[in-house]
User: Fold this.
Amino acid sequence: MADNDSLSVEEILATCRRLDGGEAGAASPPQPAASEPAEEAPAPSAPVEKAPAKPASPAAGKPTGEMSVADILAAARAEKSGEGAKPPAESPAAAEAPTATKTAAPAKKPGEMSVAEIMAAARGQKPAAAPAEKSSPKPAPAAKPAAKEAPKKPAAGPQKGVTVDTQSILAAARKSDKRGPISKEELKAKAVVAEKPAKPVKPKITPPPMPEKPVYARRPEPAPATTAQQDRRTFFSSSVAVFFGSFLAIGFTTLTLTNLLWLLGLARFMFPNILTEPPTKFKIGFPDDYAPGQVETKYTPQFGVWIVRYQYEGQPQIYALKSVCTHLGCTPNWLDAEQKFKCPCHGSGFYKDGINFEGPAPRPLERYAIQRADDGQLEVDKSQTFQEELGQWANPASFVPA
Ligand code: FES
Assistant:
């Protein structure tokens, strides 16, 4: 069973016809002319049989011409709600209803009525046409124009409680579109329907080939270059390439060398400045390695010392003379033929034992400390010097007895 609020168009029309039929039966007395067609009329339709339920509706006392759409819908809902239970007693209007509805019901079936006729029936205009159709053999031409003109009248007539246009109500009732939200499939179906047809594909137009130029319009082809011209072009191109190429090569080579120098300077900067001096103590071999009166010069370039095995004040000794002139610091030379040390700077001369005897040297040469090591070798210590004018040569650390 349908919901009480959702009424179909058929139910609304049935209610309208019942209201119309009841009103006609109550207002107009039974006529003999109308009773004959009623006997000849076919069996009353279902809406006609439900006409006795009409008095239960609140709009029963109103004429149909004054009823609004809201009243009609209210009457239809009330009838629908009390559809199963029939009233216990039939009113006089209801008793006469079959004869009246017999005149209204056979007018048209609900499915055959147009919208204008439905609206006219809803506003009580149909009953006027229906009896005429029954009483006269040719009522149709007169009824149809009235029915067609009927939709125009309700717009001007008074309506009670109408908030929506009747046309829009009927249009919405017959509308096939679904109300409320729609699914994606329905939206796609609508989009496919609304989609524009594909544009026709235009055929490609192939332009005809260009005609060949006439002979007089053609440009003469350039003559091939001679060997001399080719050589000249090659020479110029190669000269330019060599010129610029050599400049580029020189520039890049200079840049590379400069970068290398900068890298070397940076590497030198990363290491600290240290003195690479020889050690102050060094061994010079065994005492027997030196012959009496020998002056050994092989340690002079590296250590600046002469190893002499000679005697001083009648005592044979092995001592180490410092190879520095006592004048201004030059390095004297040992002259084996003259058996003396000779300074090349100012001509100072020193004996084998280191005593100065010529030149500007003010004092004798100095001695380094010398001693025997644990292994029996002689070891010179340059950290300690001995001067003869100070009487230091008498120190046992300044010589090794031979
Ligand atoms: Fe040796 Fe002057 S430095 S004599």
Observations:
- The mean pLDDT is 72.
- The pocket of FE2/S2 (inorganic) cluster is lined by residues 325, 327-328, 330, 343, 345-348, 359-361 (CB under 6 Å).
